[in-house]
Amino acid sequence: MADINLQKLAEVLVHYSLEIKPGEKLWVRALGDPGSMLRSFYQEAVKAGALIFLTHYSDDLQQAVIRYGTDEQITFMPDTEMLAMDYCDLMLALYAEQNTKASNSLDSAKLALLESARKEWIDRFLTRSASGDLRWCLTLLPTQASAQDAGMALQDYEDFVYGAMLLNTPDPVAAWRQVDVQQQRIADYLMKHDEIHIVAPGTDVTYRVGGRIWKNASGKVNFPDGEVFTGPLENSVNGYVTFSYPAIWRGKEVEDVRLEFSEGKCVKATAARGEEYLNAMLDMDEGARYVGEVAFGLNYGIQQFTRNLLFDEKIGGTMHMALGASYPETGGLNKSALHWDIVCDLHEGMVYADGEVCYEKGKFVI
């Protein structure tokens, strides 16, 4: 059954998410051990006419650099990475991590240094994506490590993942096209408003989005998907947010995060566990304490926290904020090596758009 789902996943990625055309140059960036998924996707992409080149990254090797490397080694970014970014027409990031906790014992300052070294690459990636010059998608293969993070047996986790991807429907591509239509209604509504005010237990925050573009995330960039998002005006975020779920970045977990904002900047960041790491990441560069993205999760096939942001930021009935880099296609201007999504449950919350109730009990009521 898993092999059938992997073939379905490959077909959706090639023909819906990336829409590969003959002769397009495709960069596949694999992390971990994607195994049969990589084979299924590679074969389908070849059939579609893609010109493919592959890089395979290992967490174990990156850990060695952080543990034993000098600052020069940690911040080294090969020219080949930038050349590949400029060379490709398409990019698929395929994650199949075997140990999601591998970074837990690594030095926070060195991890921040590693992230800061990627800023130029990230800026180039975001610019090409925003212009439409680069089409890309990120997806995940169920592994034992991810299943353990979610507190599930591997078979149950596979069922959860493939269900969230709508691979259990007769025609997954048609199902995602319907998602696209439904979510566009919400994006169109939000585009007509400026001030968004969110009130929930431990949360009272406002931000402005007038002139910014709400994007409909319906399986073209992340897979699975299910959200609408934009970049707030950089100096407009005010108030405080208590995030319902742990914040996870590079495998490290921070619990009970509470952020306070004034004129866009996070002026205070506290956590019950991992506070030092949280602030180290927020201090990595000038833009890391500003909100680059605000979003609402709309995938109601995802209703449990799995400790994987690809799924957790899409949980139906939540909102998330990303500290750091904006997506230029939204009109956002914030730049940072960081883009850290943190999720807040809104099932007991209310959202107001220019003073009008538009969301309650975990759903839009427009």
Distance between the termini: 39 Å
Helix content: 25-40%
Largest sheet: 8 strands, antiparallel
- Stretches with pLDDT under 50, minimum 5 residues: none
- The strand line-up of the biggest sheet is 14-13-10-6-5-18-19-20
- Record field, number of beta strands: 20
* Discrete helix count: 12
Q: Structurally, how many domains make up the residues?
A: 2
SS strand fraction: 25-35%
Report mean pLDDT, rounded to a whole number: 94
Q: What general outline do the C-alpha atoms trace?
A: globular
Using only C-alpha atoms, the radius of gyration works out to 20 Å
Instruction: Briefly note the structural class of the backbone.
Output: alpha+beta
Brief rundown of the structure:
With 366 residues, the chain is of the alpha+beta class. It is built from twelve helices and 20 strands.
